[in-house]
């Protein structure tokens, strides 16, 4: 490795650096540099050779290990060093050792520099072996090394061989515990300067090299915090090796972080309370088998020992590592409960805090923290490589615009408060955040900042800043921030980082959002760069497009009624705009919904003129046909780009016009009854439960005739993206769409372009060759029109929910013929089925029938035999071959119980009212979705479902110390209903929406409604089920299960004016106990 000579100067903040010709150095952090001799350039900026004066220093601000550093390059022409003035200059800078420096220069013609406040300088050309301290040999080949990073010398050994073996053995022991799913923790302990922080990073890298996918670090050292500003305790999930010094971590290393700030050890109870919270957070959010490394403070006696005792009691670490530099140092006295077999003592004969270049000077911790913050923040400024952090003009804010987070019982003078927050991180907030402020932020997931007073409202954070000065006399504070505060209509509030619990702080990487995309596999290997991933997705999404084959299939006109000319009045447009969601959605035209909604009256007329002209001309602006595509994960491997669905974000104004066109099309299609009654997706008055209710009725109808029923589930391959635009136009003509409107729709689908946006990076733009855009308003309707005739020639029953197709028949031969017809339809209209993803299930009445059917049925599609399954999940409901819902009930009860456990862990310090509200919002809906289908009739299943709510209330009684006499008494005391009663009421309301209020449409295959029935004592909506209720599955079917209760409802329950809400309230007042299985005496 190349050598850089360094010498101390008269001023302890200055340093002389001698660099050989042709060398490239990378400079991180904020510093000043003066070239005394030789030719050198910084990022193509030539450094002049001038006399030594403080005013001649060139100020440099370089990112702190999170971006491209400043590159200092020395050329071969260094003749200036021979000049007699060099000795004079060196004498002025370093009078005591300038002769030694001149000897060190020798005859190599180097360049000579003077640097001030050096944060770190490292060689740019890496050679030789990489020390195990930074990267373990087992994972060296898996790591892409950054171009510039700090590295150990080849001959450096971090630990003695015996202690190295002990450490390796204990890490292997923890790895074995990991395989059993046990969560473990490690506590390194050491006095200041012993190298504990470096040991902690070494442990992180060791664990990652021993099979751990990630390591949690609980940082308790608030004096020299590893991942946050000083004063913070943090819990951080580290997912890749740390290749840097403690104050220079790479941003990409970290996945998420939780931290609490504004803390010192003088607030010991608060400090220990925060530690316990963070350790409990690790136990709650971490995966089974995770490890937590606790970075303690470098303080092992007095208060430090008390803190270590408390940490030991709370965390009960599985491994203690005590590191010390010499035998005379203070040592920690372990508690008696600690097993000494789990303690490793390491004698480090090197100062692990000063590793790297020869004679490297050690900087004070306070200066390191200050320069770390400054160095990183400079990367957010316009010209971070040249502009100096110290020359950036800060914003001046008055004290009344500052919220200081200190304990409410602590009285602190203003002068003391503001001196304590100098150079610290603050959150920028405003009381009434508006659109302009949100645009400044550029992020939608900024945290809510809570001040100490719990009665105060939370503030919306839109950015961060660093306090660089306080003037107590003027009662002003100066803050540096990349956010342009001059654009704000009101001054921001500054909130210090107390109680900020957010995974999107800038000192750690942002928490991965739900649509975050990790490494992707491609033909060129594994892609980690976001831009490469975006291009890979763009290529994947473009590969599925189809070119029209030029054939025009014949399709008979479905109606003689035509729709060709439409126009939109301003009042209609104003109404549509007023109903938009008030959100700041991403849009290629940069106009969010909230702007259109607030200006609905003002822009209705101009938009009316634009929309009507667009219809008449049959054309759209190019930007309206541009889409930002977001890859949304579906299922399967997350590294396969084929397992993502492309969702298009289109222009807001274009979506408004699509709403108007869609309304016109829906009116035409509904009036002429053109849509298939088998399609339940993207239609009003239809939903998933209604389709499944019809599905079960068809199955039971045939099962009661002793016929096994086969249902084939068809999966279309990239259905939305492979529609031929030309063939779609021919179908629209058959449905009566003609003239201007047809030309407009054709132009809407033609000439489209898209670019992929992921992880904050955009791909290039490519054209769209086919399909309807997913995520648009008009796309779903056009899709269901395209497949509307898919069942015209089929003999079997079929049900559709968007592109999810089911074919149902008691005759397997009929199904086989229909699959052949389906294959022909797909070939004609250039649609593709994925046989490998299709499957079928056969519903049977008895086990004997089951055995007989299994040997007979053999179903094929496109020459491939389809797999048969015993259970299948359909629109969120699990069906079994015997049509019992035991498996589904067990599944939802497991999910509900798991969420209850999480609820009690998260809301440890909450009150009962909050706990009850969370139960109603997050848990009860799990057990009630689809209850019209699976609501149990057997007593043991009813008790089993009810036990979830019962156990929840019992646990609440223990936690909140209220009396628990019986389940039904507790329900009455807190205004709750039993789950069985709620299911009965939901069933009645659902049937009311079908029969009376017509909120849902049902083909009425399985029941007869006597709407003509007139009686003064009974209501006129009596029903009679066509299906028998003598079988287990027949009695569970909604009309049979509800028949007696529905027909016996009193007349006054039905409101004069149809209203499902009013009906529900009336039903709740009735005594329905005789229709319930459970009561206070039986449960």
TrEMBL record:
For this protein, the record's InterPro entries field holds: CLP1_P, DNA/RNA_pol_sf, NOL9_C, P-loop_NTPase, Rev_trsase/Diguanyl_cyclase, RT_dom
Q: Which Pfam families match?
A: CLP1_P (PF16575), NOL9_C (PF25467), RVT_1 (PF00078)
Superkingdom per UniProt? Eukaryota
Q: Where is the Reverse transcriptase domain?
A: 613-866
Kindly provide the name given to this protein in its UniProt entry. Reverse transcriptase domain-containing protein
Q: Which organism is it from?
A: Caenorhabditis remanei (Caenorhabditis vulgaris)
